[in-house]
Design brief:
By secondary structure, the protein is of the alpha+beta class. The chain has one domain. The chain is built from 6 helices and 3 strands, in the order H-E-E-H-H-H-H-H-E. It has helices at residues 15-20, 64-67, 76-82, 91-96, 106-109, 114-117, and strands at residues 30-34, 41-47, 127-128. A 3-stranded mixed β-sheet has the order 1-2-3, with no helix packed on it. Strand 1 (30-34) and strand 2 form a beta hairpin. It is globular and about 45 Å long. The two termini are 29 Å apart.
Length: 146
């Protein structure tokens, strides 16, 4: 990968660089609720059934669509359509907005654990959708996911 590739426009990244931009927080794997009457979007603590709650990575990333067909394939083009549901700390969202990565991002810190130490990841506080009925998700809404 190129040196400081994360500073390049997203469209110029190679597939490997694009994948490496992920900070490993797991927040994009949280289920969201959209309220039909207001259009408001709310994050929940309910995670995709494939999310590993400790590593904050997908347990079957290469084959995720076999298990979760609706899983979003993030691309620079798709990012422009759905950036509103990505957390404000997301490296993809930050870079699409022309903002730098946070110091805790492993590409800056050199340490993949720094996202967890900074309290940005979902490590240890999610509930898997595999064990929680969808009608109960509203009880798990997160008030602020900065």
């Amino acid at each position: 990968m190129r040196e400081r590739f994360w500073e390049l426009p997203l469209e110029q990244l190679t597939p490997g660089e694009w994948e490496a931009l992920c900070d490993g927080c797991g927040r994009c794997c949280l289920n969201k609720l959209e309220f039909e009457d207001t259009g408001e979007l709310a994050f929940t603590r309910v995670a995709c059934k494939l999310l590993d709650g400790h590593s904050c990575r997908c347990g079957s990333y290469a084959n995720r669509h076999d298990y979760v067909p609706e899983c979003v394939v993030l691309t620079p083009k798709k990012l422009k359509e759905i950036d509103w549901w990505l957390p404000r700390t997301c490296a993809y969202r930050l870079r699409s907005e022309g903002k730098p990565l946070y110091d805790w991002h492993y590409l800056i810190s050199g340490d993949a654990e720094s996202v967890h130490r900074a309290g940005i990841s979902v490590r240890g506080w999610t509930v898997s959708e595999a064990v929680l009925p969808e009608e109960d998700w509203e009880d798990y809404i997160i008030e602020d996911l900065s």
